[in-house]
Amino acid sequence: MTTPAIPLLPTALDPPLTDQAESIDEVWTLFLWIGLGVLALVVVLVLWVVVRYRRRDDRLPRQKHYNIPMEITYTLIPLLVVCALFAVTFVTVRAIDDTDADPDLVVHVLAYQWSWQFDYPDEGVTVFDRSDVDDPELVLPASSSVRFDLESADVVHSFWLTPFRFKRDMIPGTPTSFSVDIGDTTGEFPNAGVCGEFCGLDHARMHFRLRVLPPDEFEQWLDDQREAGGGVP
Questions:
Q1: 133 forms bridges with which residues in the sheet?
Q2: Nearest Cα to 206, choosing from 128, 144, 139, 141?
Q3: pLDDT tens digits, residue range 18-55?
Q4: H/E element holding 144?
Q5: I want to staple 111 with a disulfide (CB 3.0 to 4.6 A). Which of 15, 96, 148, 157 is the partner?
Q6: Who contacts 93 (Cβ-Cβ below 8 Å, separation ≥6)?
Q7: Whether 171 contacts 158, CB under 8 Å
Q8: Contact between 188 and 116 (Cβ < 8 Å)
Q9: Phi, psi dihedrals of residue 225, rounded to the nearest 5°
């Protein structure tokens, strides 16, 4: 058995491929800029205190045991920021967790030690790794809604697609689903899919490739898979 090579250096994060991923990126960006703003404020205040109140002689500066307006201000402002970030995160996560009852495509994902199987039940196509060498490939149509039905065959796995900015644990005996709206970006993303939960000896082998095709090419790919027997050689 040949184990696929695992890149030693991190690669650039794939671009967001779904509407939900773009929403997550916006939330991350918001958190980043607010964090940088807080950092800048703290640095400026520390430098100002160091310069303004540096020791000039042996006299102690004027002592003040409390400052009610200041204490209310530095308590209220962080509280408002945290509440705003919580509200933004809550709304975004609820939108991501909405499941489309009538998607354009349904993909059943089966995780097992130590690979993946992708079933397209309405199209009569199944994709899995027959060679134990190449990673299985998840193929999706652009500009479409897709519902993923997730199931684990043995232990706890985690379905993680970096271009979706999404990870969902797969617990044996507990099927779960989520939906995405794929944008119009197409291309191949060879390192996009991994298992995000340690699942045993060959956990590091649980990669899969992602390919997003224009709708007409996706239909042709389905036809090719049917003619080839439904799997990936």
A1: none
A2: 128
A3: 988 888 889 999 999 999 999 999 999 999 988 887 77
A4: strand 144-152
A5: 157
A6: none
A7: no
A8: no
A9: -65, -40
User: Which tokens go with 128?
Assistant: 């899995």
Is there a contact between 149 and 177 (Cβ–Cβ < 8 Å)? yes
Q: What is the pLDDT of residues 87-140, one digit of tens each?
A: 988 888 887 777 778 899 999 999 999 899 999 999 989 988 765 557 889 999
Which residue in 209, 214, 159, 207 sits closest to 189, CA to CA? 209
Q: Is residue 230 within 8 Å of 124, Cβ to Cβ?
A: yes
Number of H helices, E strands in the chain: 3, 10
Q: What are phi and psi of 196, to 5 degrees?
A: -95, 15
Give the separation between CA 209 and CA 161, rounded to whole angstroms: 10
d(CA 91, CA 133): 42
Structure pTM? 0.77
Give the C-alpha separation, 182 to 230, whole Å.
Answer: 23
Q: Which of 40, 54, 229, 212 is nearest to 139 (CA)?
A: 212
Q: Are 145 and 105 in contact (CB under 8 A)?
A: yes
Helix/strand/coil for 122: coil
Nearest to 37 by CA among 69, 75, 81: 81
3-state secondary structure of 170: strand
CA-nearest of 184, 192, 188, 199 to 153 is 199
